[in-house]
Amino acid sequence: MPVLILSCPRLSPDWELHALRALVKPQTGAGLYHKNPNQLWRAGDGQTVATLLKRFAEVFGYEAVSHQPDSGDFHLLIEVDQKDAQLGRALAVLMSRHFADRWFALDRLYLKDGRFYRRSRRYKLQLRPASDVHLPKPLRAQLRGLLPCKTSPSNV
């Protein structure tokens, strides 16, 4: 059965695409040089993920298993069945909002602070907001109780 992968990459996708753009066409300015490409993964983040998955399972009845490898390209990997894609998006929003300073990826979509992005332009080397990715109202209503207190992004 096909699966979607929810991941937290070790390198920021925004930085990677900016670096690829600089290889295709050299950029003026020092924006690339002063950005740290690494996304931090703190000691307690693994426990936070376990807590979030447990709360998500209580509310939605969907058990997800996380993999947190010590090395490799990702800090976090969660497999979501293709038939549960809407629940996967809800889980991605939950993770992204709790770790608001980090980028997450779900299949070909990217998330930061609960907002969906996708690659765009001719060579797909820029991230732009994905205005057509939404959660159904019943999922949004259930998810609101799990999210940290702040205003909801417009495309959740």
Task: Report what the structure shows.
It is built from 4 helices and 7 strands; from the N terminus they run E-H-H-E-E-H-E-E-E-E-H. It is α+β, with helices and mostly antiparallel strands. The chain has a 7-stranded antiparallel β-sheet, sandwiched between helices. It is globular, with a radius of gyration of 16 Å. The chain starts with a strand and ends in a 12-residue tail after the last helix.
Quick structural gist:
With 156 residues, this protein is of the alpha+beta class. The protein contains 4 helices and 7 strands. The protein is 32% helix and 22% strand.
Describe the main β-sheet briefly. 7 strands, antiparallel
Question: How many domains make up the coordinates?
Answer: 1
What amount of the residues lies in strands? Answer: 15-25%
Overall pLDDT confidence: 88
With strands numbered from the N-terminus, the spatial order across the biggest sheet is: 2-3-1-4-5-6-7
List SSEs in N-to-C order.
EHHEEHEEEEH
Q: Which percent bin holds the helix content? A: 25-40%
The separation of the N and C termini measures: 27 Å
Q: If helices are DSSP runs of H or I spanning 4 or more residues, what is the number of helices?
A: 4
**Would you identify the regions where 5 or more consecutive residues have pLDDT less than 50?**
none
The structure class reads alpha+beta
Number of separate strands: 7
Radius of gyration, in angstroms, nearest whole number: 16 Å
- Determine the oligomeric state from the structure: single chain
The general outline is globular
